[in-house]
Amino acid sequence: MPVMEEALNTGQRPIRSFVLRQGRITAAQRRVIQDALPALQIPTGEPWQDPWNGQRNITLEIGFGNGEHLAALAAANPDQSFIGAEVHTPGVGSLLLQMEKAGIDNIRIVHDDVAAWMKTLPDALFARIIIQFPDPWPKTRQQKRRLIQTEFANTLQRLLKTGGELQLATDWADYAEQMLTVLNQTQGLINTDSGNSFSERPANRIPTRFERRGEKLGHSVYDLVYRRTS
Predict the structure, then answer these.
(1) Which residue ranges does UniProt annotate as crossing the membrane (predicted)?
(2) Catalytic residue among 35, 105, 135, 174
(3) Catalytic site residue 112?
(4) pLDDT (tens digit, 9 = 90+) per residue, 171-208?
C-alpha cells in the first residue's frame, strides 16, 4: 500500500512502487471526500506548515490502505497527531468515514504520491513513521519497484527525530529479508532487536482485517522496528 516512487539516475521516468488501483468509490465516500477532505488535506506543493504548530509529536503512516489501522491508532492516542499518506481515493474516503463516525480530529491526509513532498520536508519532523504491507513486487524483474531501497531508507532516517521510531511490516519473506538488509546498513538507524533481526509486533500496531485474513491463510508477518540514533 505504499505511496512512493523512486527516481532513476538515468533521467528516465520515475519507477513507481505502487499500482494505482482506484476501485469503486461509494456515494458515502464521495460525499465525505467532497465535504471533509479540503479542510484535512495537506498540500504537497507548498512549503511545510505544521497543522499543530509544533505542539505535538507526529506519526506518519505511508500507504494507509483503507485507514483501519490509522483510525484506530489516532482514536487510541488523542493527544498525538497523525498524517496518513495514500494515493487510492476509495481508501481516503474510507478513512474519512471512520474519522467522521468516531469523531477523530487528529489526522491530516496527504492524498498524493508523497515522493516529492517528503524531499521538501525539514529534518527530524516525525516521532514515528509506519509502513505496513507495501506492495511486494514478487517477481525478480519487478523488485526494483519495491519501496524499501537505500535512498528511501536514508530519507526515512532524515525525517525521524532523534530517538524516533520506524516501524515496518510485511508478509513476504524475501521482502522482509531485503528490508532487514537495507535498514541494518542505513547509517543513523539502529535495529531495536538485539540480534539485528525481526521484532515482536509493536504494542501500538493494531492487526487489520488484511493481516488477519493473511494469518488465516498461513501467512507469517515480519515486523521490523528501528530507532534513529543520529
Answers:
(1) none
(2) 135
(3) no
(4) 999 999 999 999 999 999 999 999 999 999 999 998 88
